[in-house]
Amino acid sequence: MTTESGGWFETARFGLFVHFGLYSLAARHEWVRSRETMSQATYDRYLERFDPDLFDARQLAREAREAGMRYAVLTAKHHDGFCLFDSSLTDYTSVRAAGRDLVAEFVEAMRAEGLRVGLYYSLLDWHHPGFPVDEHHPLRGSRDARTTEDLAGYRSYMRGQITELLTGYGEIDLLFFDFTYPGMGPEQWGAKELMETVRELRPGILVNDRLGIPGDYVTPEQYQPDRPLERDGAPVRWEACQTLNGSWGYDRDNHDYKDPSQLVRMLVQSVSCGGNLILNVGPTGRGSLDPRARDTLRAIAEWSAGHARAVHGAGPSAFPPPANALYTQAGDRLYLHLLAWPFGHVHLPGLAGRVRYAQLLHDGSEITFHEVDGARHEHNNLAPPSQPPGTLTLKLPTARPDVLLPVIELFLEPVESTV
Ligand code: GLC
């Protein structure tokens, strides 16, 4: 997997999504302009105040890497049409508004920390005069509303901007287009031609599926697949995109935060099902992470420091996990993630004779085990054997290790490949 084009994606497993733009100043969801049906003039008050003085891409890159993230994706343009890069095709950019090419800063900082880089590009554009006033558009229902049938101008604008992004910022590893909906799809976007342009400029790039034509990976949004994803019986590459609190853009009064341990479980669940997790942060109007986001990344970082190899380069296992547990596997290392901490023992079906050593991953402390042969009784000869033959029983310490998600690393006997 890792040698083919785009194989870095499976090795990386964990990414950072960054939603930042004019909506960050409103601080009430990135769809604020549409939700509140704001005119351009009303929305322009954020343009006038836009000053990302605390946007520090290098710090963000460090925080992402420490959290165990191996790629990062920034909103180069969101639905409001505001661009975080220096586009010759519009004045509606962070460069004109604040003298900052945030895409350039982001790409450089992420690269410097060894992260792969992706860009998010909205297909919707509520600023472009050639974009139809449809049911999502902020001007729907207003007397100024224009309907337009002719999207040719907008299509060439998108092609031009994508060309700028893929030629002006060095290597870009991934493109996240967003999104297709009834009435606005591949035909309207000129998806085929756009995809051709992308492939021509960056042959190795990974493109998501939201142009409405098949891309290189699929993007389940705000839900966690609980099994590998397939199309026509063949496994597909996927990435669950998740928020900290349900909003992508900074949403000051939204306190619906996921617990860091829940986020780690979501990451591991993705890996155990052959997918990735990209976790979003929405920097504040001034561009910094608010304490809740920062603390969450720090907590995940602490877990990642001791558990990276159960995630990066790992994938699903063919072994069936016991209840309340997930497996990830990398070659002859099998990782048992204990979602609940059982008392005394954990029983692993089918692993008798397959494991030569076991340890808690975070501290490398040995975990002893024994195998049930189907004849011997577990505790006394009044009780029947409680486990079927072939079961491997690990002896656990009574106290649950104080980490977000305890992991036991099992070194498998070198038999036939089990991945
Ligand atoms: C949705 C939302 C958008 C967000 C995206 C992230 O499509 O419209 O605001 O950027 O999801 O996947």
So what's the CATH class of the largest domain? Alpha Beta
What fold name goes in the CATH topology slot of the largest domain?
TIM Barrel
The gross shape turns out to be elongated
Strand content: 15-25%
List the helices and strands and how they pair.
Layout: H1 8-12, E1 14-18, H2 23-26, H3 32-35, H4 40-49, H5 57-66, E2 71-77, H6 94-98, H7 102-112, E3 116-122, H8 152-167, E4 174-178, H9 186-189, H10 191-201, E5 206-207, E6 230-231, E7 234-235, E8 239-242, H11 260-272, E9 276-281, H12 291-307, E10 325-330, E11 333-338, E12 345-348, E13 355-360, E14 369-371, E15 392-395, E16 407-412
Helix pairs in contact: 5-7, 5-12, 8-10, 11-12
The structure holds alpha-D-glucopyranose (GLC).
Residues 19, 30-31, 178-179, 221, 241, 248 line the site of alpha-D-glucopyranose (GLC).
Question: Any key phrases for this structure?
Answer:
419 residues, alpha/beta, TIM Barrel, Immunoglobulin-like, 2 domains, 4-stranded antiparallel sheet, 12 helices, 16 strands, 18% strand, elongated, binds alpha-D-glucopyranose
